[in-house]
Amino acid sequence: MRTLEVSLGERSYPIHIGSGLISDSALLERSVTAEQVLIVTNETVAPLYLERLEHGLRARNTHALVLPDGEQYKTLDTFSRIIDRLIEMRFHRDACVVALGGGVVGDVAGYAAASYQRGIAFVQVPTTLLAQVDSSVGGKTAVNHPSAKNMIGAFHQPVSVIIDTETLGTLPGRELAAGIAEIVKYGLIIDPELHGWLEANIERLTSLETQALSHAVHRSCEIKAAIVAEDEREHGKRALLNLGHTFGHALEALGGYGTWLHGEAVAIGTVLAARTSQRLQWLSADDCHRIENLLRRAGLPVRADGVDPDDMLEAMTMDKKAGRHGLKLVLLRAIGEAVVAAAPERDVLREVLRGDARA
Ligand SMILES: NC(=O)c1ccc[n+]([C@@H]2O[C@H](COP(=O)([O-])OP(=O)(O)OC[C@H]3O[C@@H](n4cnc5c(N)ncnc54)[C@H](O)[C@@H]3O)[C@@H](O)[C@H]2O)c1
């Protein structure tokens, strides 16, 4: 097991990464110190891992809430279901919510933990690659509004993140690829070496090779932990983590959250960000091609065929990152160097979205 720390003063917490951690009762008991524990999971993950986690936590008084599966359930209704259960069970302020599942479960359970009695302890046990490398770390919790993603939420750091890489063995290939999109993001924004490593090792990741997975998860968490420690509330550097996300969130909203997986939308968004950067002559055609090629090799979509550019532009301005000073985008100066910049004029974006400015 390897352990990293997210350094946030008295809210610092460990990220444990290893194989079989979901049944490590010594680690679980150390990480979940509350007497009353609500494990929030979903109908896909529960049959696979709930019993193991409950067994690992047998020294605690655990209850489980099994939610329906899907991004379309990341809503205020689901949030209310969790709060209802906490009230029904008469949970105190020193209780703990444990999220067992992907980013959807983590985000909605985390938001419930942030809100119940103004905030109770929260432990993340992420079981998708995307959640392991991204959503379980950093304390962003949220639910979607029908017209825009993650519109309702709070910052609430977990007290511990327990990453069991063995759980990736049951993840469908499409979901695995979606997680790789976020790993590619880390290389692009800050770590050209990671990008090079991914180019050399991408097939080891898609075939679930343990050592390669462990390296990629560890390096991703290390980068995210450092950025979050520097800028917890996204006043500066943390915004770089949104590379590809303004385009991606718009695609997800246009597809009614059912067409693209989050990571797939981010992959397409990353290519659009790279092509915008190329159009501004910040990024070479060769680098743009490298990025697209790597995402393609990971099994990710790189084009949003059939999406109307004007619908996209409209949806992009609904994104949370479109502040009162206009739309901002994360763009690339080079592989490994991202910047937050004012979006170029609509005509330029329309051209990129239409694919006229192809790499
Ligand atoms: N809070 C953050 O900082 C942050 C960052 C990135 C993404 N997100 C959010 O995360 C969500 C996407 O997360 P996701 O990609 O994990 O999606 P997800 O939670 O929907 O999980 C994907 C699918 O895999 C299933 N699954 C989970 N673990 C499994 C396992 N081990 N074996 C088999 N099936 C398994 C799930 O039931 C689901 O069907 C989005 O809502 C996104 O907005 C949040």
Features:
single chain; 20% strand; alpha/beta; Dehydroquinate synthase-like, alpha domain; Rossmann fold; 46% helix; 2 domains; 359 residues; binds nicotinamide-adenine-dinucleotide
Task: Describe the protein's architecture and organization.
This protein is of the alpha/beta class and 359 residues long. The protein has 2 domains: 169 residues, Rossmann fold (3-Layer(aba) Sandwich); 182 residues, Dehydroquinate synthase-like - alpha domain (Dehydroquinate synthase-like, alpha domain, Up-down Bundle). Helix content is 46%, strand content 20%. The protein has 13 helices and 12 strands. The protein has a 7-stranded mixed beta sheet, sandwiched between helices. Helix 2 links the parallel strand 3 and strand 4. Helix 3 packs across helix 4, helix 6 packs parallel to helix 10 and helix 9 crosses helix 12. The radius of gyration is 20 Å and the shape is globular. The termini are far apart. The model has no long low-confidence stretch (mean pLDDT 95). The site of nicotinamide-adenine-dinucleotide has 29 residues, from helix 4, helix 5, helix 6 and helix 10.
Oligomer category: single chain
Strand fraction equals: 15-25%
What is the CATH superfamily classification of the largest domain?
Dehydroquinate synthase-like - alpha domain
CATH class type of the largest domain: Mainly Alpha
Extract low-pLDDT stretches.
none
What's the number of domains?
Answer: 2
Q: What small ligands are held by the chains? A: nicotinamide-adenine-dinucleotide
CATH topology of the largest domain: Dehydroquinate synthase-like, alpha domain
Helix content: 40-55%
Radius of gyration: 20 Å
Q: What is the spatial order of strands in the main beta sheet? A: 1-2-9-6-5-3-4
Main structural class:
alpha/beta
Average pLDDT number: 95
Given the structure, what is the number of helices? 13
